[in-house]
Design brief:
The chain is of the alpha+beta class and about 270 residues long. The chain contains 4 helices and 17 strands. The longest helix has 12 residues. It is globular, with a radius of gyration of 18 Å. The two termini are about 15 Å apart.
Amino acid sequence: MLDGMAFGWLTVFLDFPADAFGPGMAFWREVTGCRLSPPRGAAGEFATLLPPSGDAYLRVQRVLDGGGCHLDLHVDTASEPLAEAADRAVALGARVRRRDGDARGDRLIIADSPGGFTFCLVEWHGESVVPAPLVIDGGGSSRVDTLCLDVPPAEFERECSFWAELTGWEPRPAAVPGFRYLRRPTGMPARLLFQRLDSAAPGQRVRAHLDLGCTDAAREVSRHVGLGARAAGTFPHWTVLADPAGLAYCLVTRAPDTMRSTPAES
């Protein structure tokens, strides 16, 4: 492992515009088998998807415009205060956009990666138990287990290096050409995967999508479509879908990752 920050957990946010917040939230609650927490925020713009077991790592947010995914990295502030974590991120090429806190110091720092992907630094509160995969009626299982960053080709090497140095997790080539991942510590609820796009428009920022590992792809695609998704493309090992809010994601044919070392990553 490289020398990086002390992250105890990570959370993936699904960001929906106001007119798609309800349908998007309801869809992801159903496909993940989660309960929804009471809303939070000044305007009820945040909620957590609560798994049947383990600690939550998926949240939804209503945003003013756009939509997509962003990442929260939970910093072990006993080892490194958020302000110092932000300074290290900036030294690696990040740009801090906003700091929220109180008399005790920073409680939330919003930043962009060198390629423009939004992430937040927040305090770790001891989350450590990865939720089990959802067992699908009739057979099979699935779980959101990957956040895939979609990187313009000119930004790929710099973006991969930034995240490897920030986290201290070793970068490795994936089995499929054009992809790379970070070998993260045991107990992280989702891994970080990087996809080199074939092309990109001038000024295009890094975006991200979710991947779900699933053991019965045909059954899972049918289930998702029945809940309101739209199939957008089929490839040898994965299917691209769009949720009711239009956010793209992938169902990947493999056992859902429980964040322990697997043969594919060894």
